[in-house]
Amino acid sequence: MLAARGEPHGTVVVAEEQTAGIGRHGHTWHSAGNGGLYLSIILRLALPSDLLPVLTMALGLAAHCAVEEVCGVSCDIRWPNDLMLGGKKLAGIMVQAADHGALIAGIGVNVNQTAFPEDLHSIATSLRLETRRGYSKEALLDRVVAESLKYAASLTDMGKGEILKQFEGRSSYARGKAVEVDDGRRVFAGVTAGLDENGFLMVETPSGIETVMAGGVRAV
Asked: Is-contact 55 155, C-beta < 8 A?
C-alpha cells in the first residue's frame, strides 16, 4: 500500500508482531510478539529482473554484517538468504515485487525468543539482546536498514560480481558442504560446488553438476 502511494526508496515499516508472516515459497514465518525483529523496506532500484535473486543474497549479506557488528555474533549464511547460528535458522530474507516498480524487502530476525512451536524448536534459534550491555533491538534495526541500503546500492552500482564473491567468502554452504536439496520437483543430495555467474548454487552429485535455481537446502 505504501509502495503504491509512492513512498520513497528506503521507507521502512517495522512490526512488533506478525499474524500472517510468510517466508520463501509460501512457507509461514513464526512471528512471536514482543521478541523478533520484523521489517519491510521499500526499494526503488534500477535493476534488471535477472539480478533480483542476487539482490536477495545481497540483503542476506547485509543482515549478516548487522548481526555481527551489533551483537558480536558470528553467523553463517545458508544459500540463498538464511542466517544460521549453531546450525539453526536465525533470520530470513525475501524480496517481492510491488506496485509502481518498487520492491519490498522483508527481513525477519529472531530476537529474545525463548520458545518456538514444536515443529520449529529443533531448527530455529534466537539472539539474546541485553540492553544493559549495549545490545538492543533498536540498534540492530538501525544497522540492518543501513546495511541493506548499502548493499542494495552496491549491487546497483557495481553489479553482481562483488556480491557473489562476498557471499562465497562468508557462507559455508556455498562450497564443499554436503547438502540435501528440495527444488520443488525432486529431492537429491550432493556437495556444493560454488555459485554460477547468476548466483545459483551448483551441487556436485554422482550423476554430475546440478544447478539449483530455487528450493530448500539443508546440511546433512
From this structure: yes
Does the predicted TM-score (pTM) go above 0.85? Answer: yes
Q: Is 106 exposed, middle or buried (0-12, 13-18, 19+ CB in 10 A)?
A: buried
Set out the domains of the chain in order of their start, with CATH numbers: 12-170 (3.30.930.10), 175-219 (2.30.30.100)
Q: Strands 12-15 and 187-195: what pairing?
A: unpaired
> Which are the contacts of 166, defined by CB distance < 8 A and separation ≥ 6?
61
Has residue 32 got a pLDDT over 70? no
From residue 125, give the alpha-carbon distance in Å to each of 34, 36, 110, 150, 191: 16, 11, 7, 27, 25
Q: Given strand 208-212, what is the order of strands in its sheet?
A: 208-212, 201-205, 187-195, 175-182, 216-219
CA angle 169, 172, 177 (to 5 degrees): 130
